[in-house]
């Protein structure tokens, strides 16, 4: 069913059309330097690492917060809808206690980090989304950031399957920065940095989050919890914007009137060159780190343009997110870098395996599936959908056989986009989130992206997920389980799977011949093979880890 979203805040309606006029509809009014505009934009609060580590507690609990001029009772971290940004450097560690004082289970995912998906030797939890923190309990997370980890903007959020959409929209998401992305660029040292976290929320007349979120209901879209804040820049000044879509479902197609975006990094991965564009598309979960240079004195709007996700999807109206005022003494613009540090091109490496992953949905029943080569299946935490040998690079073709957009995201690693709908893509870097276009009708080809996915990092051995990052779809079943295994285990798994198939075929023939004794002996062999084929070793368990894992 086609759904058209409205905007809840009257201020957004009043400003949405103000970008029309001179300079291509960019400058609305001239800023008066004798009476300068006061900036109202605020960066989120921050917690910074000290002596190589960041120790903190996130308390999940209901609170009444002020959003878009309304009092809203929802479940948040530490009493705030915009919790602190966690800021570390490569080689440091995050020690985080998640204290659940809410009425339903939750957990934590550190989106984009290339870290262990398991349980640490000291029984603390790494980036393991199969752990559930039950009401009234606390779990300790220890995230070791490798010294070679990419610097950039990441985020943390609940990943409690089935209720992730409501929990994220309600407030359980925040920013995470690994410092150092500008370090190799001396001309950019000391420029103004702005962290701009984009979130949306639906609010009932009673001031609560809806029990069943209706994507067609009015939605408030905010920057760091602010409605249309004002930012100030000088003409010619270079500023660094770290933009993150940390909401549950909404796409943001961004345009800053009178300016262009010089994208330096995507999803925490610095490019090998600046990518310049008039617009930025941020699907749910995506981040973009950009440079802007102040235009002539005037007032300019940062807008989320109207956006449609397909015949079975949603239509978002245009919204004004922030206002940029260029005022004061003009600066000579910094010469932006023409090249950035080299990034490894995965096309130069051998491809160990090619897979096809297909997004499928039942629009009539609003249920969602992933076909990883074993048929369309809804998420099952106890099933392994893709077994991947560590130390390899694979090519995944992701197909969208549905009439609405989906967003492919994989945990623990990044990928390189090589093709979109059959068109080769220039190599600029890596990312962890990608929009996949929809299939307009049954006679059309599915949307398609080709990805080279890097599974060489030994830290990511273990079990994690890949899914659509529209959380309505993830909760509805569009998620699957990958397991990266050590090469010897991968060989054993492949041998076991091949032998099981052969034994099954023989077992079937024996039963057909009526040879019950032979069938029984083969069945015993089959059981032994299945029991020992993976040669697994047990990992330490956290007290709150789900017993079905």
TrEMBL record:
Subcellular location: Periplasm
Keyword Chaperone annotated: no
Location, primary (coarse class): periplasm
Coiled coil regions in record: none
Keywords assigned: Metal-binding, Oxidoreductase
Plastocyanin-like domain segment(s): 60-179, 215-325, 367-484
GO cellular component: periplasmic space
Top-level division of the source organism's lineage: Bacteria
An example molecular function term from Gene Ontology annotations: copper ion binding
The protein's name in its UniProt record: Multicopper oxidase family protein
Organism: Noviherbaspirillum cavernae
Highest classification ranks of the organism: Bacteria, Pseudomonadati, Pseudomonadota, Betaproteobacteria, Burkholderiales
């Amino acid at each position: 069913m086609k759904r058209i979203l409205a905007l809840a805040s009257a201020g957004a309606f009043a400003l949405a059309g103000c970008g029309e006029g001179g300079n291509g509809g960019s400058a609305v009014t001239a800023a008066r330097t004798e009476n300068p505009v006061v900036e109202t934009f605020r960066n989120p609060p921050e917690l910074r690492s000290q002596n190589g580590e960041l120790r903190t507690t996130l308390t999940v609990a209901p609170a009444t917060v002020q959003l878009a001029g309304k009092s809203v009772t929802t479940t948040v971290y530490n009493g705030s809808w915009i919790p602190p940004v966690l800021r570390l450097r490569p080689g440091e560690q995050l020690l985080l206690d998640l204290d659940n004082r809410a009425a339903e289970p939750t957990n934590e995912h550190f989106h984009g980090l290339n870290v262990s998906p398991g349980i640490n030797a000291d029984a603390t939890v790494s980036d393991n989304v199969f752990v559930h923190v039950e009401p009234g309990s606390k779990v300790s997370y220890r995230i070791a950031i490798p010294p070679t980890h990419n610097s950039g903007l990441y985020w943390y959020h609940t990943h409690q399957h089935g209720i992730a959409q409501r929990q994220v929209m309600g407030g359980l998401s925040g920013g995470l920065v690994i410092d150092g992305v500008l370090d190799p660029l001396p001309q950019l040292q000391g420029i103004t940095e702005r962290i701009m976290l984009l979130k949306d929320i639906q609010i009932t007349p009673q001031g609560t989050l809806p029990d069943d979120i209706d994507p067609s209901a009015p939605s408030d879209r905010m920057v760091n919890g602010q409605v249309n804040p004002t930012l100030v820049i000088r003409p010619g000044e270079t500023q660094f914007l770290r933009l993150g879509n940390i909401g549950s479902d909404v796409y943001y197609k961004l345009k800053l009137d009178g300016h262009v975006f010089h994208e330096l990094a995507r999803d925490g991965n610095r490019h090998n060159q600046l990518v310049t564009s008039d617009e930025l598309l941020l699907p749910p979960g995506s981040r973009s780190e950009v440079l802007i240079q102040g235009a002539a004195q005037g007032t300019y709007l940062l807008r989320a343009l109207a956006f449609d996700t397909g015949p079975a999807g949603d239509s978002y109206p245009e919204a004004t997110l922030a206002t940029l005022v260029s005022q004061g003494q003009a600066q000579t613009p910094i010469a932006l870098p023409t090249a950035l540090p080299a990034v490894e091109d995965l096309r130069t490496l051998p491809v160990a395996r090619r897979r096809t992953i297909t997004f499928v949905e039942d629009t009539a029943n609003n249920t969602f599936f992933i076909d990883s080569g074993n048929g369309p299946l809804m998420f099952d935490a106890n099933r392994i959908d893709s077994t991947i040998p560590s130390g390899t690079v694979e090519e995944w073709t992701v197909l969208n056989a549905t009439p609405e957009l989906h967003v492919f995201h994989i945990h623990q690693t990044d990928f390189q986009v090589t093709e979109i709908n059959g068109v080769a893509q220039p190599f600029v870097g890596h990312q962890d989130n990608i929009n996949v276009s929809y299939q307009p009708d049954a006679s059309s080809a599915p949307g398609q992206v080709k990805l080279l996915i890097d599974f060489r990092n030994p830290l990511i051995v273990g079990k994690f997920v890949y899914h659509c990052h529209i959380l309505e779809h993830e909760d509805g079943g569009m998620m699957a389980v990958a397991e990266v295994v050590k090469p010897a285990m991968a060989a054993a798994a492949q041998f076991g799977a091949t032998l099981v198939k052969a034994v099954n075929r023989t077992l079937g023939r024996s039963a057909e011949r009526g040879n019950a004794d032979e069938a029984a002996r083969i069945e015993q062999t089959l059981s032994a093979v299945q029991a020992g084929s993976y040669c697994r070793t047990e990992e330490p368990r956290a007290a709150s880890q789900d017993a079905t894992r």
